Amino acid sequence: MTQLKGKVAIVTGSSRGIGAEIAYTLAAAGAKVVINYNGSKESAEEVAKNISDKGGNAVIIQADVSKASEAAQLFDQAMDHFGQVDILINNAGIMMNSLIKDVSDEDFTKMFDVNVKGVFNMLKQASTKLAENGSIVNFSSSTTRLMMPGYGIYSATKAAVEQMSRVFSKEIGERGINVNSILPGGTNTELFKEGKSDEIISKLASMSAFNRIGEPEDIAKIVLLLCSDEAKWMTGQNIGANGGTA
Ligand code: NAP
């Protein structure tokens, strides 16, 4: 198994869902982990406690990554606590589904603020503060490949993340840092399940080669691989993590 002993990772939005699972997986591989949350303090505390109960090392830090000042504080507090940051997982994200004609200005702005500006804010911090030879994984979505009605603005935010990642990989590569985007398909979390009937979930599951939706563990294992020395030559890529859905 990939070893991350001595490494420090920030996982944005790791109070719940895929981010929490990534925090567990990186901690199990030996990394010290910063659990970032925005509103879910109790869940973040529980994630940190579960890690320390297993002998790992985690700290929780509140920050709304869509705000530049809070993203800077998140990075600085992580460095104050652990001395360095080697791995940045830009997982925090939100999704509101509507046909483009029905999307409110407010929801458009909210999704771009968290999903795009949040990643941008953290990449800016990483450009000077992430340790040499580190790794960055940004979260896109397989919806950028599926053209599903109702996902227009969410997909647009994730397409922006993919393009930023590809360019940023060339801007930061001279420091030995690899940057990739991961594109999960439907994955068993609150974000995915909210507002979907069992019938819709079964239909989406049937689009994968394995006739099921993803579990957070499926995604976390790929994130671990992308942070490993073995994947260093992989950079600037947008990687589907969707059981063959798209
Ligand atoms: P989730 O269960 O809704 O969890 C979202 C996490 O993001 C929470 O920990 C939340 O923290 C955090 N967050 C939201 N806004 C934030 C902000 N402004 N600043 C900091 N943290 C913030 O979502 P998920 O399903 O695990 O999704 C994780 C990522 O995968 C997202 O980027 C999503 O777009 C992407 N994705 C998910 C799926 C899927 O099917 N689940 C598919 C493709 C891509 P608080 O609760 O503390 O606010």
TrEMBL record:
InterPro entries in the record: NAD(P)-bd_dom_sf, Sc_DH/Rdtase_CS, SDR_fam
Any Pfam family hit: adh_short_C2
Gene Ontology molecular function: oxidoreductase activity, acting on CH-OH group of donors
UniProt key word Ion transport: no
Keywords: NADP, Oxidoreductase
Family matches, as CDD domains: THN_reductase-like_SDR_c
Identification of the protein by name: 3-ketoacyl-ACP reductase
Taxonomic placement: Bacteria, Pseudomonadati, Bacteroidota, Flavobacteriia, Flavobacteriales
